[in-house]
Structures are given as structure tokens and as C-alpha cells.
Amino acid sequence: MRPNPLRDRLLNNERSVGCWLSSPSSINAEVAARVGFDYTCIDMQHGLVDYSSIVPMLQAINLSTTTATVRVPWNEPGIIGKVLDAGAMAVIVPMVNTQAEAEQVIERGYYHPKGGRSSGPIRVQPLEDPDYPEIANDHVLMIPMIETIEAVENIDEILSVDGVDAIYVGPMDLSVSMGLGRAKEDPPFVEALDHIAARCAAHGVYPGIHGNPDIIHDRFGRGFKMVTVQSDLAAMRLNLVESLAIGRGEGVDDAGGGGY
Amino acid sequence: MRPNPLRDRLLNNERSVGCWLSSPSSINAEVAARVGFDYTCIDMQHGLVDYSSIVPMLQAINLSTTTATVRVPWNEPGIIGKVLDAGAMAVIVPMVNTQAEAEQVIERGYYHPKGGRSSGPIRVQPLEDPDYPEIANDHVLMIPMIETIEAVENIDEILSVDGVDAIYVGPMDLSVSMGLGRAKEDPPFVEALDHIAARCAAHGVYPGIHGNPDIIHDRFGRGFKMVTVQSDLAAMRLNLVESLAIGRGEGVDDAGGGGY
Amino acid sequence: MRPNPLRDRLLNNERSVGCWLSSPSSINAEVAARVGFDYTCIDMQHGLVDYSSIVPMLQAINLSTTTATVRVPWNEPGIIGKVLDAGAMAVIVPMVNTQAEAEQVIERGYYHPKGGRSSGPIRVQPLEDPDYPEIANDHVLMIPMIETIEAVENIDEILSVDGVDAIYVGPMDLSVSMGLGRAKEDPPFVEALDHIAARCAAHGVYPGIHGNPDIIHDRFGRGFKMVTVQSDLAAMRLNLVESLAIGRGEGVDDAGGGGY
Amino acid sequence: MRPNPLRDRLLNNERSVGCWLSSPSSINAEVAARVGFDYTCIDMQHGLVDYSSIVPMLQAINLSTTTATVRVPWNEPGIIGKVLDAGAMAVIVPMVNTQAEAEQVIERGYYHPKGGRSSGPIRVQPLEDPDYPEIANDHVLMIPMIETIEAVENIDEILSVDGVDAIYVGPMDLSVSMGLGRAKEDPPFVEALDHIAARCAAHGVYPGIHGNPDIIHDRFGRGFKMVTVQSDLAAMRLNLVESLAIGRGEGVDDAGGGGY
Amino acid sequence: MRPNPLRDRLLNNERSVGCWLSSPSSINAEVAARVGFDYTCIDMQHGLVDYSSIVPMLQAINLSTTTATVRVPWNEPGIIGKVLDAGAMAVIVPMVNTQAEAEQVIERGYYHPKGGRSSGPIRVQPLEDPDYPEIANDHVLMIPMIETIEAVENIDEILSVDGVDAIYVGPMDLSVSMGLGRAKEDPPFVEALDHIAARCAAHGVYPGIHGNPDIIHDRFGRGFKMVTVQSDLAAMRLNLVESLAIGRGEGVDDAGGGGY
Amino acid sequence: MRPNPLRDRLLNNERSVGCWLSSPSSINAEVAARVGFDYTCIDMQHGLVDYSSIVPMLQAINLSTTTATVRVPWNEPGIIGKVLDAGAMAVIVPMVNTQAEAEQVIERGYYHPKGGRSSGPIRVQPLEDPDYPEIANDHVLMIPMIETIEAVENIDEILSVDGVDAIYVGPMDLSVSMGLGRAKEDPPFVEALDHIAARCAAHGVYPGIHGNPDIIHDRFGRGFKMVTVQSDLAAMRLNLVESLAIGRGEGVDDAGGGGY
Known about the structure:
Shape of chain A: globular
CATH architecture of chain A: Alpha-Beta Barrel
Structural class of chain A: alpha/beta
Largest interface: A-E, 39 and 39 residues
Strand content of chain A: 15-25%
Oligomer: homohexamer
Number of strands of chain A: 8
Distance between the termini of chain A: 33 Å
CATH superfamily of chain A: Phosphoenolpyruvate-binding domains
Strand order of the largest sheet of chain A: 1-2-3-4-5-6-7-8
CATH class of chain A: Alpha Beta
Number of domains of chain A: 1
């Protein structure tokens, strides 16, 4: 098997820093993957990517050693199987709110007897290992997202599901679902984060969360181990805004959120 | 927010005329969007389009002021979120036959507290408004399709769902589901149309329907407010058939349906 | 209607030999379709193909007379409708384990009154027949896959569903679900194959199965009628391995599985 | 060899009516090719098409019997070879102003000994005939464009080149190069057209010209034999403009040129 | 005509700051174009872009008001015409070393009588102005590149060509052609830059040059008026390198050149 | 620098065995590149590939160690620069018939002072080496094709050009240009091959030639060192023809040439 830094760090309980890809571009993917992140995640949910771009993007990511990761659009068996067969070594699954939904994630991403994933690892077997079908269950990471108040309420049931070795918090959706809007550092929200991190520690589950450069060390400090620090499009836009300001001889305006 | 003619006309109870895009082409989309329709709808259900074409098509449509509309392939949360994040301001959802299915449409297309749409408006926020997450619920139109006899029987329950401000009738499927085949102007079918329009008027819901140039004024006359008059491929084919007949010095054959 | 060799052979209970397309290439598809297989199946489940490649691939396949076939990624109504509208004349649906799931396959692939397929045959109607909507139910083949021990246990219920005229066995998944791993010629597995073939004969259903050149005549001998013998990528790789060995002046190594 | 209506009509000195494809869409191409034109020409010069779209467009065109024709962007050997290898049976070459340039067209499009086309008919040989390399020179049409005053002055030298069996007039460029702007029906322009048609008749060369439905019979009347009557994008736009006007209950505005 | 900030600034002899696009992505293009640069240039020479990406990228750029600019791969008439027809309002042409080559640039990019550009502005006419064919010569900028010692020696002849209103220096190639390698701030190189800027001032030609944030004010100080400050891929990579270093809690390594 | 087996074998005067890619598919490319050929050549001349597919195909090839090679469509500076910048380590240039044309190949492919290649190695520099601009001339192979009787007559002048370290014979075109048609093993043709190989040996140039499994050892025996043994599409088709014959229980028909 090729190196899988995200899984190695999970096994060692070390911190992982990741990058997000929101654009369906194998070139953005190659540039980002070379930077040295522990994992590089193609976002099929909110990113502008669908399956037709996944194969060339994974080919580009596989030129580096970062863990090839995909966030699927939804907890749906067809797409989970397809991204695994194409070479994803970690799969983030949105909106897992109950134990039953977490069990579906495991069922759909792991082979018998751990789950019921259909066999046909067309690209990943020659890429990773001739014995991939026998060993995949020990290498692939299926990562449910915790991003609603309902999921927080069900956190122990979700973390107890056999096969859930990591989770990933969607802070924007969590804050919105708590009625706090996008001002997501209100005390109840922060308490929810701390609660999630504490329960992960108790269950021996590796806790991940979406972040940015301003907030990543706060998140690590709260016990999160896997934090996404930047995306391809936000990185591009922020640097271009700064570069234009330099060119104009002006101070940098607040670069704004931009949504990327 | 950019102009949204379909929503403005809905608010004013004025008639809207729309165009259908069945081809995955950002060039067809740019040409059609320039013509001046109130809405231009990319058809992901029966059209030959999937998500990989949606972003360039929406970019092309956004060069004009027509309301960027998408018909998704099915009432499925992943794709509804993706087309909204990419910039659709109206989403038509096929085969909504029950109140529960209509509630799903609202749940999947609107943010908390109106629904549970996941937050990540990657393209639409910079395009439309920095405050898009806060105001989207007041601008996006989620439009269930009424296209089976079951839906007609459940029409009051569907129209009563909070958030259903418009519906869209699929006349072909409705006629077929009534056992009338494609000869869809039989009295029971027309009575069903009249019933739908009347119940929409009673509920204050804006009624839409698929049409063509021969039938659009009949539909307006029956109380429908939003009628699609033509598609990119049918328009092209019809004019080419006429042009060839002129070139041959012949009368125009019956251009036929062609299915486009 | 164009020729449909797979259906003709089914009606005559003759053997069919098919080809699998795992790559999203209209050029691979044109080359393979010219070879003369009875059916050529685009694999959207384990192949590296999604809908954005389906239309050009079907255009390429339609240059020959082989039956244009698609395996969809999952038993999901949106994609079943889309591949039929685009021109598939046979659709293979994975992981059909119960009578209810088999009924869904029929419901989603056939028009009223046989099922509830939505009407909008945008490409297939002009391609195949102006009366396609009226006659499609008599020409399209909806083929559930039997690929788990659960499905074998439910085989009579599945084969009894009205509209199930053929099934297709996924031997790898079947063997894995039986706890036999990939060594799939163990007696219990072979007994399961024989049982499936026998029940198909009893129900008058045409039994298909995935195969390869080494095993195809064993499968025919056991009563299977429709066997896929090779895929585009496996064919390419096997010949290239042999060609390189010739170029090196070496014997051919075991070409290995490769997963294609 | 497959039917080649343009060449058959040339040999019989019958009139041909053609269609232009300006959009890089295999779907537009399939729709247009089904209409029944004698030739369907993909425009790589002013159309929005490059080579990456040529193969799927030719696959789509080959589903009908219209002559697959390509206008290349320029008189350049690489692209002429590529479109022929991909399946073009007629190639229109812009801006041929001198006898030497006409000789280049022949050199680049025909095999030895007529020219020096490089051998490698990768798609067209299996499509058309196993003996394509031996017989292609008798089937392919290489068609220089006459579209400057310089070309008109050199018309006899150009028409005398062995292998020039047809030419194609670009009326817009010709009018502009004569200093007449786009008002291209001025007497000197019409005289130039008549002169070209007369010289073609004298040399036994089949004269083609770009047109539209209003002007096609004027062109036929002046002796032109091959007239393009409409394009995919102009057809679509014209019908959509009319359809919107009907929907609005208005007369059709002048649809305008639009440039398509 | 839409706004054309680059041309307005040229007419007012004001400084322009530009952005470079090296990736064939309409999404990168939309993000970059929103930032507010005076011009945004798609690089078809050293960027990873060819014509098949130009149309969607121009559609994306046209959503903002930045001048849509293209650097073509070479001084070749086919591609110059194609990018202009698709909507480029400025075209940068590499490796113009002599007066004759500068005259070709003008001939290929302007209509009669200024040049011989072929007429067929398929996308740009509806986008920009119905009278585009008559007024394009007053709006389009054709910009030869000065990037060899030979071009510097011929600078007065090149700047004297009627229609050359701006030039663009390629500093890397210039330095290399002077035998100075990539250490391009050696005195002879800087003297060459100063000479070019001085001769532009003397001829009333707007001088442009490739740059970066560190060097842009040096270039403005030397009299250059149009400086490209950053590219999509370099911007993305630089910010990702910084973001990863923050995530690791390390200082930023030298981000290195990377070649983007 | 990454491994470059073709150059290593050239330096050691060892035999190389190569693969040809005729299809614009990054998946075919990944499968073929894994097989273990010394070089894998994307054919932009007669293959169905243009630049838009080159970047993902090179990304796929770079997952293996085979030398990434491209045959450009023609001896044109724009495309030679583009494929080198994208990562080609060897470039085969068709139809080099004279010393002047061979000098152009060197001028276009090597940096100053060996040639005049424009600097901008956007993908290949980060992929291969930060010092790529300084060392590329020692690693890239520019390989002119010898494929006409004129080139054979000029063979000593071509082989004498500084920088020509390898050539590649196009046997089909050579045979045709000698008036021998496709029956290319006639004595004069074979004598021409022997003459080319002998002159290469005399000049210390590595001689390559197109081949197939039947003929590769004849070519090696005549002194050729670099022989292409198979292509992606021919490999696929040949194995599929055999597989179908097995499935039918028939002997293998003559698989025919097919032109791939």
C-alpha cells in the first residue's frame, strides 16, 4: 500500500493538517497535493466537483503522498462505492445524525464481513495493492460528519458504532442548526465542540473539524486532531486580493469571506 | 441580489414565459439566455445534462438576467444542495406525489429554520450577495412537480406545505398516469389541469406547466402563470427542418415531435 | 426499432456474449462495439464512468448493432430514467436482494401501466422509433443483479416479479457475501450458481453472469445464457503485457488480475 | 464506403443543401444531422469548436448519412490530417488566395501520389472501408475557400489546380475585402459572385457558398450548387425569439443577426 | 461595448494591474476575475490551457468587468482569429522579433482595411455590440511580446508598425536570450528594460511586462504601465504553503518558485 | 529528475520497447503506463488526441516510470513548447525531410543557447526539478521522424544536425512515399530501412521505428534500437476479437488491421 499519512497519524494520535479542493481541476489538485498536507480532500458536497472529475483529480493527487480523501455529496451507497473504487483512501460522509446513519456509512464503505461494499476496485487495486480486496478494510477510513444538534445529542451512539475510527465536524452547519447563524463562536457552539472532542477522546475516535488559518490552533487546543486549514479557491482568492492591493499600492482590504 | 424575474413575477402574480435547456452546453445556454425569457431551466431529469455541465451553464446564464433554474433528476438531497450552491435561484423537483414528499423538497432546499439545507454556498454567495446565507430563504424558489394522478388527489395537502410558493405540472406524465397516453387533451386531463390551477389560486400558489408555442395561450387562459414555451433542441430542430425545406424548395413537412 | 441482439437472443433462448466498458471513452466504446458482441455494457457502478460520458458513449455504440446496455451505480430512480432516455436498451441494476427491490427495478424502468417511469425519452425516441413511448415496454430489458446470499435465498420471489425477464449474477460479490472470499469456485458457490440457473429455467427467466474467456464455457455449460467475456481495460492490458513480453523476447509473465 | 451525398451530388452536378455546426456539441450535431441535409459542416474556424470536440461530433454525425464535413481553422497541415483521420469526408479550407495555396490544400489532404498526406487513418479506416488508404483519394473532397478579392483575381489559377473539384465562397469576407462592408449585395459583389460561378462552370468545378434561407434560391439561381442554409445556433436562436414572442402575445421583433 | 479597463487606462496612460490564468478552469477564472484586476489574461502559451477551455473561461471572465485577455501560443492566424471571435478584447502574441512579425500580428487581429482578419465574430458580436464588425478595430488591442535580444534590437521598427498600441515584455525569455539565465536583474537586462520603456514612451506605445508582487513597483518606476502581478496557480500555491506552515506551527519556508 | 528509461537506454545504446496511445484517455494512459514499457507515447498526429487531453494523460503516465513521450501533430513551435511545458520528456516530430526542418526541431525544443524554446515550464519544473530550466537541454529528447524518400536522401544532413540524438522512422509513410503502397516489406523499402539504421550507427544516433509484435525482432535485428510494439486501441481490439471468438466457441478470425 502507498503511504497514508492521515491513517498513520490517526494510529499515532498525531495532529493532521489538511487541504480542501472545491474546484473540479486535476491541475489545482496536483498543485495543492504537492504542498505537503497530510490529507487532501476533494469536496463533492459543497465543492463544484462531481464524479466525472474525480478520476483525473485522484490521478493528480496520487503523484504526491498526501492521503487521497473525498467528501461525498450525501450518505448514498452508489457514490461511496464509486469514489473508493477510484482510489479514495478516506471518505467523509455528510449529515450523519443517528447511529443508524453511522452504521450505513460503515456498511457502504467496508467489505464483508465488516460491511457490504460491492467488490470491483477497478483503479485502486492496481494502484495500491494486488490484495486490496482482502486488506482494504484495514486501510480505508470512513468518516461520518457531525454537523447538527441532533448528531451532537446522538454522539455517543454514533461514536460507538464499530468501524467509526474518526469523525469530522462541520462547524457552519452545526452552528446554524443550533440557531446561532454563522457567528459560530458563541458559547453554546464552543461547548458543543468541546463536548464532541471530549466524547471522541472517551471513545478513542480521532476528531476532525473544518477550519482555517486563524482558527486551526484553537481547534487543536480543544482536542481536535484533524483540521482542514485552507481550500484551493480560498487560497487563490486571498493571495490575489493581496497581490492586487500591492499592485495598486494600497493596503489590503478585508479580503472578505467570499464563500470559497 | 441579482434580478430574479421569475420571483418578481410570482410576487406580482404576473405571467412568466420560460425556456428549457436539454443539452449540456454552455453555448446553447448563453444563446438561449440572451433571448429574454423570464426563466431558463436546465433539465437534469430528461435533458442530457448532469452536474458536470451545470457550473459552466449557470455561468453562461448569469451573463443575462433570466432566472437561473434547474430541474433536478429526482427528489434527492445531494443534488438539490449542489445546484443551489452552484447558483440556481429556482429548483424544479420531479414526481412530488404526497405532502411528505413536498415537505422533503422544502427541507432540502431551504436553510434552517425553514429547512435543513447544508451550508456551503460556494459559488452563489460571491455571485449573489455576501449575506446570501441569511437571505437565501427569501429568494430561492423550490418548485415541486405535479405529474401523477396521485399528486392531483393530494393537491391540497401538497399546496398547504409551508414554503411551497409555486408548483410545476408535467403534462405528459400526468396524462400517462391517468391512462390517457400521450393524447393529453382528453377531457379528464383538461379537467385535472383546471382543478390544479383552481386549487393553486385558492392556496395562493403560483402554478407552472410545461408547454409549447401552440398551447401556451390555452395554458395561460386556464390560469397557469408560468409556462415553458420551447427548448433549445426543439427550437434548433424545428428551424433546421424549415430551413432545409426552403433550401429544397419544398413545403415544410410536419416537423414531427422528435422528442426534444 | 433498431436491432436488439440481446433481446432477440433472449426471446429465442440463445446464448449471448457481451463486452464490458469500464472507461468513460466514446473511442473505446466505438472500437469495442465494432467487434460484434451481442451486447456492450457501460459499467457505471465499478467502471470509471458517470452520466456525463454516457451520451457520447451511447452515440458511439449506436454506430454498431450491439445492444446498448448500461449498468447503473445503484437501484436509484433518477439514474435509471436518465440512461433509458439517453438510449440504453438494457439496464443492469446492482444489489437487488428482495422481491420489493426487484419490483422497484420494474417500476423505475417501465412506463405506465407496467411501471411509473417518467416520460421524456429525449434521445432514444428520435433514435429508435417515433412511437417509442408506446412500445418501449416491449423492447427495454430491466435486469436485476443477483449478487448476495440474501438474493439467492429470495431467488424465487425475485424471479416471480412481473417484468423480470432476465437477471445477471455478480459472482465476485456473491462469493464474498458467502464468506468465500475471491476464491469463488468453491463448491457452495458453484452450487449457488447452479441453483440460480435452475430457478431461472423454471421461471423462464434468461440468466446472465459476469465472466472471462477462461470461464465462459463453464458458465454456459451450467445453463447461463448471457455471459460477459471481457472488458475494454482488461483486454487492453492483457494484450499490452503480452506485446511487451514479445518485445523483450521473454515469455509472458502471469498477466495478473489487475482489477480491470 | 458509407453514403457520401455531397460527393454524389457533385458527380451528378445536382444541388446540395447544407447545415453548419458552430457549437462543440455532439448532441447539437446528432439533432442537426438527423434533419436530412446533404452535408453537415463542423466549423472550426469561426465556430466555437476545436479538435477535442471533433471526434464525438463526427461519431454523432455518422449516425446519419449526411456527408461529414469540417471547416478547418486555417490552411495548416496538422489539422487537415487530423480531421481526415477522424472521419471527415469533406474539408473546407479558409483563405485560399493563390494557386500555391490551393496546391497546398491538395498536397495536405490527399495521399501519394496526388499529395503528401501522412498515413494513419485511425478512425476513418475502420468506419469507412478496410481499403480506405488506397481509395480515399477518390472519395475525400478538399474544398478551398474563395473569400478575398485576391482569390477572385486568381480564380482561374486556383480552379486549374489538379484535385480542386469544388470551392466554397465566404461572402462576408469577400464583401469586406472588396471594401463593401457587410452590405454584401452591392453590384460589384454580385458581379464577383457571378464571375466565380461562371469560372467554376468553365472549369467543371462545383461551386459552393455560405447562405441562409432568404438568399439560398438567389445563390442557386446564380449557378452555385452547394449552399449552406442555416447553422445550429442561428436556428435555435431564431426559433426561440419567435417562441418567446408568441408566449408574450407579441409580434416577432426583427430577430436580428446575432452573429451566429 | 462592455467596459474595457485595459484600453481605457491605455488611452489615459494610467497604470494597469493584471492577473494571469495558467489553468484551464472556468472556476479559477470566475474567482480571479471577481478580484478587480484591470485585465485577466488566459495564458495559452505556457499555461495549461487550449482553445477547448477558452469559451467557458471567457464566459466566466465576462461576469466581471476586467478586460478579457488571451495570450495565444504562437503568432499563428488561426488561433488569433478564434480567440477574438470567442470574446478576447486584448490578445498578447509571443515572440515578435521583427517588424514583419509585428505587421503579421496587426494583419491577423484587425479587420480590413487595417488588417485581414476573417469575419465571423460568433460569440463576441452578440456579447459586445451588434456593430462589432464595424467598430472592433477601435476596441481590440493586439499586443506583441518583446522577449528576445533580437526584438530589442528591432524595437523601433516594431513600435513603428501602425496598429501597435501596446507591447508586453517577457522578462524571463529576454534574460535567457541575453545569455543571463534566470538571474534576470543583471545590469544589461535592466538596461534593456529601461531602453524598451524609453522607446515606448517615444513612440507613444503602452509598455507592459510580466511581474510579481515583489517587483511590480520597480517595473512601474521604470516606466512600464501594464504589469501582471500574479497568476491563479502561483497565488493558490503560495497561500497553501503559508497555510500549511501555520497549521504546522512553523515559520513559512521559502515558498520557492515552483514554476507556476 | 525522475527516471527517464528511454534516455538511459539511448545513452547505453540498449534496446527500448514502447507503447503508443491513440485515445485521449487518462485511464487508458494509466493502464498502459503501468505495464512497464520504456516509453509511452501519446500520439497527437494520427491519434485522436489534442492538447486538452495531454495534461491529464501526462499526470497518469507520471504515476509510472516510463518516459512520457508525445508525438506532436506537426513541426510547429507552439505545440512543441506546450507539450514540453506540460511534462513530455521526449517529443517525436513528424515529417522532417530536410536539414533545415531538423534544425527547426532542435530550435523549438531546446533552450538557449542550443535553441530558442520559450521559458515557462509550468508543470514540468515542479514535477521534475527546480533547476529544470538549466538542465532541461541535457534531459529532453527531440526526435525527428524520417518518413519520406526525401528524408532518406537527406539522411546524412539530418543526422548531422547538432542535437539530433535519436530519430524515429514512420514505415507506412516511407513505403507510401516510395510508391510501394502499404505492402511495405518490398526490397527497396527494406533497403531504405537498412540504410537509415546504418547511417544512424555511423552518426551515433539512436534509431527508432514504429512496429508491432510480429515485426519488432526483425527491426531490432536490422539495427533499430527503439521500437514501438503496440497501441492502446489495437491492443484492446485484438484481445476483444479473440475473446469474442472464444465466447462463440469459434477459431479466431483474422483480426484484421483495423487501422488502430
